[in-house]
Every structure is written in C-alpha cells, then in structure tokens.
Amino acid sequence: MTAIIGRSEEQRQLNLLAKSSKAEFIAVYGRRRVGKTYLITEHFRNHYQWRSTYSSPAAQIDLILDRADGIINICEMKFASTPYLIKKSEYEKLKNRVFSFQAETGMNKSMQLTFVTPFGLQTNEYANDVVQQVTLDDLFTEA
After folding, report:
1. N or C end of the chain: smaller count of CB under 10 Å?
2. Using an 8 Å Cβ cutoff, are 127 and 89 in contact?
3. Strands 130-134 and 110-116: what pairing?
4. Considering the entire predicted model, what is its pTM?
5. Which contacts qualify for 79-82: CB closer than 8 Å, 24 or more apart?
6. In degrees to the nearest 10, what's the CA dihedral of 1, 73, 27, 25?
7. Structural domains of the chain ordered from first start
C-alpha cells in the first residue's frame, strides 16, 4: 500500500468499517485540498480492485468482492446507453484478467464474473459466462 502520512487514525477507522459484517456508510469531510480523495482512493486501492504487475497486455479488475461464502465476484463496470454487448475481443480480455488475477494472487476460490452496467447485457455467446448482472434498477430500488 502507498504510504499515507499522518492519517493512521483515519486508516484504522476505515479498516474497521471495511471489515464490518454489515453495510456501512462512510462520509469523509474536511477542509478543501487536505487529501480526502487521496486517502480513500489509496486506502481501498488494494482492497477492492486489482491491477496486474506482470501480464501483457496489462490486466485490471474494476471491483473485487471477496465474499464470506468463499466466492469472489470479479466485477466489470461498463457504461452504455443501451444493453451492453460483449464482443469476442473483450471476452478474451476478460478471460485474461481472471486468469492473471488467479495466477498472480494465488487465489483458488471460485470466481464469478459480474457486470455492472446501466441496462444489463445483450444476450450472446459471450454473455453466457457472466454469472450476475447489476443494473441501475438494482442499485436504485426503494426498499
């Protein structure tokens, strides 16, 4: 992790909240230009996303959810104004990301590909490997 100077108490609190078994809301506030965004970005960079240090082409995973049931959701975030279409070239990149993640981290848990996109996915042969889709309706539904 990148060294964050002078924020040990804030990092301790972020760690406690991140390890909580319930949903938590974190509000970081303070004067302008004191490093609030940097603190959050750097603190969670290694916890919830991943970037390969070896693969070529470079591989990056947008969001990783390591669940208590031993399954890891590999989340791909895509913006589209219609249902998103996974093309063959992108499908190959996705497979490379998951393979690189497993090889570099030594993770042997079950991996599930999850897409987060406003309107879901167009059905095709490449979308069949996506285990879960999260749409705007999923994110903004009243309880």
Report:
1. C
2. no
3. parallel
4. 0.66
5. 79/117, 79/118, 80/117, 80/118, 80/119, 81/118, 81/119, 82/119, 82/122
6. -140
7. 1-48 (no CATH), 51-143 (3.40.1350)
Residues 6+ apart with CB under 8 A from 18: 24, 44, 47
Nearest to 51 by CA among 61, 39, 66: 61
Structure tokens at 59: 């591989």
Dig out the tokens for 44 from the structure: 């969670």
Q: Give the residues across from 133 on adjacent strands.
A: 115
Query: Over the stretch 52-108, which tens digit does the pLDDT of each residue have?
Result: 888 777 788 888 888 889 899 999 989 899 999 999 999 999 999 999 999 988 888
What type of residue is 107? M
